[in-house]
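Hi everyone, sorry if this is the wrong subforum. Our group has a chain we'd like a structural model of before ordering constructs, and none of us has done structure prediction before. Sequence below.
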Amino acid sequence: MKVLVLGSQGQLGQCLQDQFTQTNYQVTYHCRADTDIANFAETSDNLSSLNPDVVVNASAYTAVDKAETQQSLANQINHLAVDNLAKVCEKIGCFLIHVSTDYVFDGKASQPYQEDDQTNPQGVYGASKLAGEIAIQRTDCRFLIIRTAWVFSEYGSNFFKTMLRLGAERESLNIVGDQIGCPTYAQDIGRLVVELLPKIGADNIESGIYHFCGDTPCSWQQFAEEIFSQAKNFGYQTPKQIKSIATEDYPTPAARPLYSVLDCTKIQNTFNIKKSNWRHGIGQALTLL
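Answer:
Right subforum, don't worry. Here is the predicted structure as tokens:
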């Protein structure tokens, strides 16, 4: 099976590289310099030339706050480029695995979101990602859309690494305590993709949307506390105090969902996939830094 990973130098892309080293798949890794998905002609030419069996799209515009003022760019990458990508995959007959987000929901629920729950993004980023999902589903491309949340790892820029940096600089941190979600270790998303490939290869998989995230909900403040608790064992300097604050006390250009826990029952029952153990993921990431 030939696999093409787009966005190979991003956080998830690098985790996919780690996971694929343990397999025998024929994998090609393309970063933006190799294939810029916002360049439709280049994307079509490169995919047609490589003719992969599966494309894993790990590329995205993920700057949630900047998206509020860079609406056109966010839409170009997360929506229009994804629409083009799906159409190219349909044309050459390859399967598309696309990664989406919990931000397609408004966060006003009181129980975990299921795949068919009403979407209602509150910002440009979430709206652009939802538009990309809809574009894929409007084609005849065979696909899996994986919605995930609060992604972290030893790579790139993310909450986990930001906390380690700030913990070494400050004795006290104010962390939002009223936003609830499920942290997801990016290496676990990579493992998920690898586990799905045999089913795709056997043509034993139906196109659809699936949720995959961390195993237990927490607030950003609780996430930070767990990071620092484990970081101490690795010799990291940690803050003496972590204060829980309300979302309204930490205003951001883009609204965040107050509750974005994803129900992963569908992916568990369909593919026998376990949710991401994010506490274990913190330990793994600390080991690999």
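For your construct planning: The mean pLDDT is 97. The CA atoms of residues 96 and 225 lie 37 Å apart.
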